[in-house]
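Support request from a user on the community tier.

User writes: "When I paste my structure tokens into the form, the page sometimes reloads and wipes my input. The last time it worked, I copied everything first. Here is what I submitted, just in case something in the input itself triggers the reload:"
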């Protein structure tokens, strides 16, 4: 079965044909580590995780590179304003390096709690300054660059296909409208900095020597330099959120293809936004929600993962606490069903449901459809329990919901103690006592089963 994905470049669903199948090189834009990532960011990372898992499910071998932006991302998407990492470091009274380290670790911890698979290469912009300088030198040699008083700029008019990722959208002025125009020396609003000079009035914490003077790389150049270092000058898939289409990704294409003369990424996949109260998340109006906020309200990060699977990645998702509550209940039920089915001997998975699931994925990752097939398969009383369990086991490789994992951390000390005592009773062959504790646990909503690998429990 062919896997079809919607390619923003050309705006069509296309069959995935990697350059060196079964290997698939993927680059995804990672976080700017000046703050916690919000749940909107995580929606995009979950979509990218599902994509990787789907590739694996279809027999491909994904190799994933993700960057950490720890320098150069300025307050506007263009090249104006101050560096986000430096500004926040000052505000929090930390060094820029410590701040970036702190939020990188927080990000990785969040990803693990969402069961997002780690990338094969996680690369920091500050560890790749030379690669970025080398790429800028190539662009300079080819005549794409010009100098202004605050940096070295890429002249977008010199790359005729500059608007190809946006399609006709650029005609409506989306791109120029999104920019804060502050540098009158730019020849065109869509020109962008590849190297910025350190300001004269204060010393930056992060700065490097370069053939153009002391400064730091522009935000966009890091992705081109690192993607090409780890995946070659042409790579298979590049992902990010839709906000990156008009500026960041258009700039990546211009500077990469300008330097190499080769197609950069062949498939561009973009995740739609998560909205809160039908608008963008903002710190100022309290709509900036983090995973920690979810946990404080009694949600497990995996409830949010489930929630993201209920909407297609190319559709906006308006976040509400009520909808998240519904996903929490649904995930618990799904898990209970799965664990219940697994209590019987495994049988081969039912091919019809398995194929229907795969077909839904093959249609540009139609997860809402795939999820409804999982529910139908699981509830289908015509199938032996063991067959339903095998089906769910296989599809959970893609869903990543860890449906067969019991959540030890939700145990109260009282229940944990009873489970321990029961295990001990069983070991000393005191079956009367172990049965009595089993009943006690049952009255507390915990079902215990004895398996060859010891006692297993689940919530009723
Ligand atoms: P940033 O840290 O701002 O560079 O964003 C990290 C990733 O999250 C990028 O792929 C963005 O496109 C994506 N992103 C930002 N805001 C949202 C949102 N509200 N919903 C979904 N994805 C988002
Ligand atoms: Zn990027």
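"...and here is what came back when it finally went through:"
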């Amino acid at each position: 079965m062919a896997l079809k994905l919607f390619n923003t470049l050309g705006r069509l669903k296309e069959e995935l044909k990697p350059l060196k199948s079964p290997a698939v090189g993927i680059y995804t834009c990672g976080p700017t580590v000046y703050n916690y990532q919000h749940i909107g960011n995580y929606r995009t990372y979950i979509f990218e995780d599902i994509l990787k898992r789907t590739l694996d499910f279809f027999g491909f071998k994904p190799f994933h590179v993700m960057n950490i932006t720890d320098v150069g991302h300025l307050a506007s998407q263009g090249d104006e304003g101050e560096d986000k990492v430096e500004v926040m470091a000052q505000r929090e009274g930390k060094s820029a390096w410590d701040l970036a380290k702190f939020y990188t670790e927080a990000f990785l911890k969040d990803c693990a709690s969402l069961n997002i698979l780690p990338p094969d290469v996680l690369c920091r912009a500050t560890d790749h300054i030379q690669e970025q300088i080398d790429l800028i030198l190539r662009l300079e040699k080819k005549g794409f660059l010009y100098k202004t008083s605050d940096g070295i700029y890429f002249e977008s008019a010199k790359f005729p296909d500059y608007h190809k990722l946006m399609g006709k959208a650029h005609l409506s002025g989306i791109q120029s409208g999104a920019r804060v125009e502050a540098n009158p020396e730019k020849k065109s609003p869509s020109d962008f900095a590849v190297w910025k000079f350190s300001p004269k009035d204060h010393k930056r914490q992060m700065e490097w020597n370069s053939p153009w003077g002391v400064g730091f790389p522009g935000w966009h150049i890091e992705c081109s330099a690192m993607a090409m270092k780890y995946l070659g000058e042409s790579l298979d898939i590049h992902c990010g959120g839709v906000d990156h289409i008009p500026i960041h990704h258009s700039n990546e294409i211009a500077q990469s293809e300008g330097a190499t003369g080769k197609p950069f990424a062949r498939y561009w996949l973009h995740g739609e936004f998560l909205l809160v109260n039908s608008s963008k998340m903002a710190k100022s109006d309290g709509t900036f929600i983090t995973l920690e906020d979810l946990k404080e309200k009694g949600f497990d990060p995996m409830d949010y993962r489930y929630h993201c699977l209920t909407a297609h990645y190319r559709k906006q998702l308006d976040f509400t606490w009520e909808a998240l509550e519904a996903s929490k209940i649904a995930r618990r039920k799904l898990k209970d069903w799965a664990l219940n089915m697994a209590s019987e001997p495994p049988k081969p998975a039912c091919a019809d449901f398995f194929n229907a699931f795969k077909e839904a994925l093959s249609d540009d990752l139609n997860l809402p459809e795939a999820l409804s097939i999982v529910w139908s398969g699981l509830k289908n009383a015509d199938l032996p329990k063991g067959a339903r369990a095998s089906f769910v086991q296989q599809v959970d490789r893609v869903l990543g919901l860890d449906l067969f994992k019991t959540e030890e951390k939700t145990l109260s000390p009282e229940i944990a103690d009873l489970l321990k005592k029961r295990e001990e009773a069983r070991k000393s062959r005191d079956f009367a006592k172990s049965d009595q504790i089993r009943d006690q646990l049952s009255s507390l909503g915990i079902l215990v089963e004895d398996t060859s690998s010891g006692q297993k429990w689940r919530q009723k």
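Agent notes: The reload is a front-end session timeout and is unrelated to the input. The chain has three domains: 4-271, 278-399, 413-459. Residues 174-180 have pLDDT under 50 and may be disordered. Escalated to web team.
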